[in-house]
C-alpha cells in the first residue's frame, strides 16, 4: 500500500510532487517521506483495532526517529516505544508526554535508566533480574518509584529473517517464561519498583499470524497465572513486528512484475486474536509497531553514476550506498527499485550497486530493470523504516538529507551532512 507514492503517466510522484523535481532541488541521495502515507497506515491500524478501543499504539522510534516525523506521528495520538536515553530525549522533544513513553532494550546503561526514571516515563521494560536490581537501586537513589514491566521470551519462532527474530529462547531477549514468575515476584516485592505488567516482542517483519497467536496464548496463560498468585497484571505490551509488503509496491505496465509472492498480516484477524486472548479485566493492551507505520512512506532517490559491464554482468552504480540504506547489505532485504521516469524500452538484468568499498554494497542482484544511463534517477522504495535510522557515514560519506512531503508542500526535515560534519 504505497498509494501516496505512485506514477502519474511516466513520472514518479510523492504525493503531488514530482520525484525528479525534488532530486533536482535537494540533490541525491535523498530520503523523501509522504506524511499522508504515514497517516493512512496509522489509520489502517486504528480502524482494524477499533474492536479494542482501549488499546494503545506506541510507535517504535527505532524505525525512524526524525524529529518532524515523530511530531507527525505523535499528532496522530500514539505513544512512544524507545530503546535508549537518546530515543527518550527525542520523544520528549517531539512532544510525547512522559507517561506515554516506554523504554525497552536488553542492555540499558545506568545513564539510560537514570534518565528514564528522572523523566518519569510510563514504564521501563526490564529484561533480566540483574537489570531489575539496578532499576530498583537507581530509583531509590533518585528518590523515585520506577514503573516496571517484565519482558518475557515466549519461545516462539516468528518465521522471519534470523537477524530480526527475537522470541526464541536462544535469543538474548527477555526472561524465559519458566523463570519469569520468580522475577515478577521479586519486582512486586521491591519498594522503589511498581510492577506494571508483561512485555513481549517476538521479531520484526512478521507476515504470518501463527507466531503472534502462539505468543499471545503463552502471555495470556502467564498473565492469568500471575493474577491467581495475587499479582495483578495491569498492562500487556505485545510488541511490534507487523510486516509490510516490499514487492510490487508500485505496479505499472512499464515495470517488471516481481514474481515471488509475499504474505501479509490480516489486521482484522490480528485484532480479533488479540481481543480474544489478551483482553483481560483491568488490563490495558499496547502494541509497538514501527515498520508498519513508516516503511511505505519513504523512498530513497539516487542518481545513476555509471553503467559498468563486467564478465557478462551489468552493474548500475548509483550514488547511494550501503551506508545510506543498509537493509540489503545486512539482511539481503528486497526493495523494489524503479526509475523515476519510465521510458518503456523493455528490461535488462542488472545489479544495482553503491559506491562503497564492500561487495555487500548493493541494492539488487540480477534484477529485471528498465535500462538506465548515467544521470538517470532511480527510487529505492519502502525505505521509511530502518532506512535513515540504520545509516552511517561509513567511507566518510556525509549522510543524505531528509524531506517530508505533505500534498504540494515539501520541507527539509534534516539537512544533508557536509564534509565539516565528518570532522
Ligand atoms: N518493539 C521492540 C522491543 C523491538 O525490538 C522492535 C524492533 C519493535 C518494537 C518494532 O518492530 P517493527 O514493528 O518495526 O517490526 N533493522 C531491522 C529491524 C529490526 C527490528 C528491531 N526491533 C530491519 O531493517 O528489518
Written account of the structure:
The protein is α/β, with parallel strands linked by helices and 423 residues long. It folds into 2 domains: 35-293, TIM Barrel (Alpha-Beta Barrel); 296-422, Beta Barrel (Lyase, Ornithine Decarboxylase, Chain A, domain 1), CATH 2.40.37. The chain has helices at residues 19-26, 35-48, 67-75, 85-93, 110-118, 129-141, 177-188, 209-228, 267-278, 291-294, 327-331; strands spanning 5-8, 11-14, 17-18, 30-34, 56-60, 79-82, 101-103, 123-126, 146-153, 175-176, 193-199, 235-237, 284-287, 298-310, 313-318, 337-339, 348-353, 362-369, 377-381, 401-406, 409-414. The strands form 3 sheets. Strands 4, 14, 15, 16, 17, 18, 19, 20 and 21 form a 9-stranded mixed sheet that branches. Strands 5-6-7-8-9-11-12-13 form an 8-stranded parallel beta barrel, surrounded by 4 helices. A 3-stranded antiparallel sheet has the order 1-2-3. Strand 14 and strand 15 form a beta hairpin. The chain is elongated. Bound molecules: ligand LLP. The site of ligand LLP has 23 residues, from helix 10 and helix 11.
Quaternary organization: single chain
Helix-strand category: alpha/beta
Low-confidence stretches: none
Helical amount: 25-40%
> What's the CATH class of the largest domain, please?
Alpha Beta
Strand content: 25-35%
Mean pLDDT over all positions: 96
Number of domains: 2
Small-molecule components bound = ligand LLP
The CATH architecture of the largest domain comes to Alpha-Beta Barrel
In the CATH scheme, what's the topology name of the largest domain?
TIM Barrel
Q: How far apart, in Å, are the first and last alpha carbons?
A: 40 Å
Amino acid at each position: 500500500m504505497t498509494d501516496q507514492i505512485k506514477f502519474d503517466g511516466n513520472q514518479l510522484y510523492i504525493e503531488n510532487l514530482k520525484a525528479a523535481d525534488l532530486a533536482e532541488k535537494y540533490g541525491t541521495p535523498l530520503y523523501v517521506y509522504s506524511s499522508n502515507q504515514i497517516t493512512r497506515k496509522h489509520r489502517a491500524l486504528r480502524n482494524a483495532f477499533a474492536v479494542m478501543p482501549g488499546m494503545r499504539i506506541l510507535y517504535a522510534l527505532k524505525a525512524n526517529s526524525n524529529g518532524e516525523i515523530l511530531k507527525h506521528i505523535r499528532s496522530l495520538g500514539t505513544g512512544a516505544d524507545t530503546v535508549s536515553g537518546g530515543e527518550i530525549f527525542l520523544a520528549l522533544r517531539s512532544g510525547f508526554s512522559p507517561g506515554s513513553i516506554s523504554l525497552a532494550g536488553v542492555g540499558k546503561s545506568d545513564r539510560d535508566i537514570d534518565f528514564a526514571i528522572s523523566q518519569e516515563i510510563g514504564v521501563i521494560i526490564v529484561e533480566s533480574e540483574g537489570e531489575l536490581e539496578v532499576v530498583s537501586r537507581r530509583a531509590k537513589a533518585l528518590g523515585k518509584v520506577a514503573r516496571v514491566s517484565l519482558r518475557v521470551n515466549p519461545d516462539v519462532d516468528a518465521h522471519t529473517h534470523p537477524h530480526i527474530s527475537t522470541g526464541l529462547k536462544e535469543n538474548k531477549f527477555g526472561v524465559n517464561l519458566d523463570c519469569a514468575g520468580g522475577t515478577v515476584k521479586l519486582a512486586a516485592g521491591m519498594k522503589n519498583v511498581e510492577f506494571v505488567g508483561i512485555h513481549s516482542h517476538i521479531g520484526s517483519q512478521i507476515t504470518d499470524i501463527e507466531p503472534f497467536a502462539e505468543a499471545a496464548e503463552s502471555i495470556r496463560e502467564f498473565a492469568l497465572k500471575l493474577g491467581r498468585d495475587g499479582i495483578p497484571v495491569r498492562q500487556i505490551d505485545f510488541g511490534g513486528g507487523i510486516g509490510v509488503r516490499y514487492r510490487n509496491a508500485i505496479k505499472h505496465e512499464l515495470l517488471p512484475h516481481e514474481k515471488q509472492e509475499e504474505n501479509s498480516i490480516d489486521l482484522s484477524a490480528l485484532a480479533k486474536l488479540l481481543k480474544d486472548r489478551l483482553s483481560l479485566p483491568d488490563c490495558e493492551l499496547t502494541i509497538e509497531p514501527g515498520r508498519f507505520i513508516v516503511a511505505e512512506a519513504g523512498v530513497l532517490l539516487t542518481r545513476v553514476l555509471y553503467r559498468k559491464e563486467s564478465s557478462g554482468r551489468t552493474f548500475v552504480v548509483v550514488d547511494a550506498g550501503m551506508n545510506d540504506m543498509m537493509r540489503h547489505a545486512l539482511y539481503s532485504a528486497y526493495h523494489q527499485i524503479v526509475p523515476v521516469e519510465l521510458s518503456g524500452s523493455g528490461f535488462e538484468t542488472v545489479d544495482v550497486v553503491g559506491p562503497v568499498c564492500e561487495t555487500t554494497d548493493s541494492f539488487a542482484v540480477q534484477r529485471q530493470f528498465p535500462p538506465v544511463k548515467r544521470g538517470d534517477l532511480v527510487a529505492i522504495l519502502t525505505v521509511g523504516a530502518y532506512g535513515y535510522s540504520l545509516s552511517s557515514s561509513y567511507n566518510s560519506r556525509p549522510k543524505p538529507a531528509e524531506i517530508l512531503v505533505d500534498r504540494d508542500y515539501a520541507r527539509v526535515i534534516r539537512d544533508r551532512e557536509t564534509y565539516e560534519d565528518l570532522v
